[in-house]
Each structure stands twice: as structure tokens, then as C-alpha cells.
Design goal:
54% helix, globular
């Protein structure tokens, strides 16, 4: 976690500054010298940003499960056998780098079109401002996602929002839970693309990596060095094959 925070300066630049630069460039490209005079309410812009960013998160996450070249970098996160709030930081630095580049390009482009065609001039810091909807989502229990605390929103709401219980199911080694609940905030992407799993009641879960039949694998990343090197090696082997 500490090493990830140190290396994370690169990811921070990508996620915030890169997004702002892309959005400013696209905005200028589509608007030219004629800036739009209309404005959108700040809450509507914040909601728009959340929807676009959450769509990016869904597909970045899903690609890391579906593509054998990327899976090794994400398997480090799934190798956690006990979930705690710090598990969210149990990520390979290259996972964050790839994720933030994709988010920066897509979110920056969409925001640039929004600013250039509809909203008009905006400060770059406005793009990086904390989103009120993410704050509310975390306030309502999202930080229990990586924990043993089962918190469900109920079947109806869990078709719209990803609950802590649904994300814990994503970490489960049970075959019926494989490749389910990729979303971060919105469950609608999982619902639309067929990866949603909504539990009827609390389920007993085992976390970690498995061999595909539900049997737990031995911890492949028992040291910091192996956690950094093994994913690079396995990704390279997958690329060659």
C-alpha cells in the first residue's frame, strides 16, 4: 500500500491533470472561438461525470478479468483472503496506471465535448473537483465493500446500485460468483451486460484465488517482491502465448 501511494503520483497526474488536459483540448477543438453560452446546473454536471466515469470503471475492471494479459495485475487484488478497507489499495501499480489512462482519455473526451458544445468555459480544477455523488455513495456504506460486514440494499436497489454485499460476492471464490458485479457505483452496467448477481439473502463467502472449481489456491503473493514481479512475468507469458 505504501509503495503504491509513492508510485501513485504518476497515477494522480494521469487521473486528474491528464483528464483536464484532454477535456480542455477537445473542448477547444469542437468550440473553436465560439464558446457556448448555455450552462448546466453543477449537480447535473456532477451526475454526468459519475455516469461516464462509472461506465469506464466497469469496462476497465471487466477487461482485467476477461483478458489474460491484464488479469495478473488484477489477481493481486483478488488474492486478499481477508477483506479490510485497505484491500482497495492492494493493487499492482500498473493496474492503476492503465486504469487512469483509460479513464483520462474517455472521461476527458466526453467532458471536453460537454464543455465545448453545451457548457462553455470552465476551470480545469472544476473537472477534478470531488464529486458530491461519490461522497454520498461512500457515506451510505460503500467503504464496507472490502470488509466482512454484509450490507445489502435489497433486490430492487441492487439492480441500480452496487452494495457492499455485491462487491464482496465479486471477491468470492464460489463458481456461481465468478465474473459478477464489476460495477463500482451503478449496477445498471452489470444488469445491461449480463454480469449482475443479486443475492436473495446473506451468503457465506470465502475470499482469495481459486483453481476454477472453487478450491482455494495457495497465496501466490506472500512477499512484496513477488507481488510486484509475478504479475509482470505472468502477463508477459500470456502475451507470448
Amino acid at each position: 500500500w505504501l509503495l503504491g501511494r509513492a508510485i501513485g503520483l504518476l497515477a494522480l497526474v494521469s487521473r486528474i491533470s491528464f483528464t483536464a488536459l484532454v477535456s480542455a483540448w477537445v473542448s477547444g477543438l469542437v468550440s473553436g472561438t465560439n464558446e457556448p453560452t448555455g450552462t448546466w446546473p453543477p449537480l447535473l454536471v456532477a451526475l454526468f461525470i459519475l455516469v461516464v466515469l462509472d461506465f469506464c470503471v466497469y469496462w476497465v475492471h471487466r477487461l482485467h478479468h476477461d483478458w489474460s494479459v491484464l488479469w495478473p495485475f488484477h489477481s493481486l487484488h483478488h488474492s486478499a483472503e481477508v477483506l479490510t478497507p485497505f484491500t482497495v489499495y492492494r493493487k499492482h501499480p500498473l493496474y492503476d496506471l492503465f486504469s487512469n489512462i483509460v479513464k483520462g482519455v474517455i472521461l476527458g473526451t466526453v467532458l471536453g465535448l460537454l464543455l465545448g458544445l453545451f457548457v462553455g468555459k470552465a476551470e480545469a480544477t472544476d473537472v477534478a473537483r470531488i464529486n458530491v455523488f461519490y461522497f454520498l455513495f461512500n457515506l451510505l456504506g460503500a467503504n464496507f465493500r472490502h470488509s466482512h460486514v454484509w450490507l445489502s440494499y435489497g433486490r430492487t436497489l441492487e439492480h441500480l446500485f452496487i452494495s457492499p454485499a455485491q462487491h464482496q460476492i465479486h471477491h468470492s471464490i464460489e463458481p456461481r460468483h465468478y465474473n459478477k458485479n464489476y460495477g463500482e457505483v451503478l449496477a445498471v452496467w452489470d444488469w445491461i451486460f449480463g454480469t449482475l448477481y443479486v443475492p436473495d439473502r446473506e451468503e457465506k463467502l470465502t475470499f482469495g484465488l481459486s483453481d476454477g472449481s472453487g478450491e482455494t489456491q495457495a497465496q501466490p503473493y506472500p512477499t512484496l517482491w513477488r507481488a510486484l514481479w509475478i504479475p509482470v512475468r505472468d502477463s508477459y507469458r500470456a502475451m507470448r502465448s
